[in-house]
# Entry
Amino acid sequence: MSPTILARPTRGISTVVAVAGLALVLAGCGGAKVGDSAGASAGATSTGGSSSSGAPAAAKCGTFNIAVNPWVGYEADAAVVAYVAQKDLGCTVVKKDLKEEVSWQGFGTGEVDVVLENWGHDDLVKKYIDGDKSAMDAGPTGNKGIIGWYVAPWMAKKYPDITDGKNLNTYASMFKTSESGGKGQLLDGDPSFVTNDEALVKNLKLDYKVVYAGSEAALIQAFRQSEKNKTPVIGYFYEPQWFLSEVPLVKVNLPAYTAGCDANAEKVACDYPEYILNKVMSTKFVASGSPAVDLVKKFGWTNDDQNVVAKYIAQDKMSAEDAAKKWVEANPDKVKAWLPAG
Amino acid sequence: MAILTSTGALAGVRARAPRRLVSVGGLLLGWLVLWVVLRGHDTLSLSPSALTPLHRWFNDLNDAIGRSRNSNPLFLYFFNEIRAALDTLVTFVQGLIAQPAYGRPIPVVGWLGVVALGGWAAAALGNIRVGLLAAAGLVFVGLQGLWRESMDTLALTVSAVLVALLIGIPLGVWVGLSPRATRSVTPVLDFMQTMPAFVYLAPMTLLFQIGPASATITTLIFAMPPTVRITGYGIRSVSSSVVEASESLGSTRLQALRSVMLPLAKRTIVLGINQTIMAAFAMVTVAALIDAPGLGKVIIKALTILDVGASFNAGLAIVVLAVVLDRVTTAASERVEVSRRRGRPSPARRPLVIGGLVIALVCVYLSRTYLWAAEFPSTIQLGGRSISVGVGSRIAQAADSTSAWVLDHFSGVTNGFRDLVTVRLLNPFQSLLTDSPWFVVVLVVVGLALVVGGRTAAITAAVCLALLIATGLWEDAMTTLASTLVATVLTMVLGIGFGVWMGRSMRADRLLRPLLDAGQTMPAFVYLVPFLALFAASRFTAIVAAIAYAAPVATKIVADGIRGVPTTSVEAAVAAGSNTWQVITKVQLPMARRALTLATNQGLIYVLSMVVVGGLVGAGALGYDVVAGFSQSNLFGKGLAAGLAIVLLGIMLDRITRAAADRAQTTAHL
# Structure
């Protein structure tokens, strides 16, 4: 409104603006002031919140830095841990949106205290846990990570034997696309995950070509279209994943995993192992004696638990905080087990 | 007279064109023959998980830097100091407009204050129209429910732009004064603009840690070059006679710079600032991957749940902020020009500016005092009822239902179109590039560069190709090159079509320009999901995404060129009985030759800057290598090599097309 005053002297406009400005000032006098209790609560940020009044007077928590890796299951973990740390331990939680590698880099400098859902990542373990010892294992999350090849439910119903990897060659021509050069297309995806798929295709003598979709979004969209339009798609996927509650993809069984069958990356001819997802903490953070250390160590839940919170976030479009609140209030016993006794 | 010059130029072009065409045709024919004979030999292919010694060496280097960062004096006294300074700057600006600061639950200036100050500043620097536009734009992002995110983005962008100007303008002046500086700085600027940010995100957090400093520097690297280049250009184009005149009057070089060159180049410099701001906005989403606060985070979060609506809403806020700043800086550069001509600022303006400032300051006071003026309200109380003022959810819903409608009605057609282009155009061309032995491709490309660009272009091409082989990613580079060239051809088809229409009709210009602006500033991450739904994960999807980004620039440049054709030539052609088609193809397009080559050059560079985004939607090759390098630490080196390969492709294509453009100009002047 004020810039209108700058108009080439058209008196009418200036007058209107002056009146409007005056009205604004007058109207303002009726409003709530900044620093009133209402103002203070409205100003509290969602992540770095003020410590809650209901928190038990335990050891001082201070700032608690959670890395949030970019997938919804992880966000669910982070949301719940952040909510509990803030509400019950009085921590000032700072969530940092980072990719895995960057998160682990942050352990050494104290910018990241915890990674809540780690999928193996042997390279990072070697570098930061065994190597410079800036990080340490904080135990399993209780979630089991499954990686493999999946098809949409309609395909498993129409071609029941497709879920046996031995039969994949019979269906190869069905999966041809503009990208697969005459072979069946095996859609690989998110570059964050380790894949043996090229070696698998070769060693299992499959008539397929690995096509790199390049992102989780691309994979999900491919499977979504597959189910909706009944177009054949086979690709790399994993659980727990929120999308499975929208379209329950069916896993294709490859020769079962046995210990060591994936030792030589070039010769792999077996399915992926089951990943025990774990938490990783910064060594500095553990030494700090923050009550959140204990919370992180004790935190654990099932795939179903995580899927519920992930569904709140992904499908019901709730904010991470609201989703966590809803789950925590519905599961007081589980949460209690993560907190100090008494 | 005009007719004489234009036909003269055409005659010159015709005399040379056939010879060149024959050579190009000969080269291509030879290539085809060699391809048939030698197909599949020496293709230098490398599987996606394989590494070369160079890639491993990059990995080791990265690890070594990581290990030494607590002990190396370079870190202790250099990187850490820079980080501290930038963190302070960004936190300060955030405290002003975005985040709670100084023990208060709100930023120093609340929304009303920001709107008023923003409007005032825009009006004072530009004109009253852009002042109103700025205020309206800011209110709009507030109504979208994205006030704090927008202010975070604005704070980060403004800080990055400030630092970019602080370094870039002096550097640009130096570049403008010294041809030697130009030669040494230009490759660095090329590097900064074409190296994909995904490559340096992780090293950035290694050097400057996680936080505002890393995000600022990431933005800075991409945003600074335009200011340097355009400032240099501005200084250089101040005619030497003016400078000589001032020096003959006894002023020193420095005085001449201050009193003559800088004032005369001021308008151009402001245009450089404009380009820097636009480039900074292009980095908002990418910087969010290393925790940069603001709208980028909203888009990344929305992408993880494929929420088209939420991501469109946030993307629209970026478009609004970028367009507002674009219009304000453009208006500011015009004002600079006007006041320079007039000699001094108009006296009637001063009291108005001061009056405006007073009112803005009152608003700032209000926004520090009253809650309704501090935090952007989501509802307003009117006569006892509370009315929701947010438009964010409505925009999101509209975007959702529009994209759903498009998918339902077009996905059959789009797949057919994809297959047609892929099978008929992309696959054969890609096969030609990737299945030919490397030495054949090198010979053909260098030969083509020689024919269309000349000797310097050919040497540059040879050097770039040699280095490409050294990156170990030859086959991936050829795959990417194939998609890039196909995308550029399609970009130019669209660019010429719409550009001619816009250049000939003011109404079309008014209609299309906002759409083009939106296409240029809307983050690609917003339309990835709908594009994936339409075309599935494929190279073609990547091509479409690249076109969406590159076609607006090409269109604008073509339109500009068409408009630059003297009306007398067009009128003469019409008088001589040419129909519209003949006017376009025989007069306007040939006379806009230089604009067309420039548009091709820029189209190529813009397409190339989307290679990484393409990697996210199924393009594979270099784009995927870069993305995977950012995601997996053992692939870091390969990602870096892929980034370098993209830079090399960029420099090679840029030099060839630019040399061709220069030739076009000299031929046109014959």
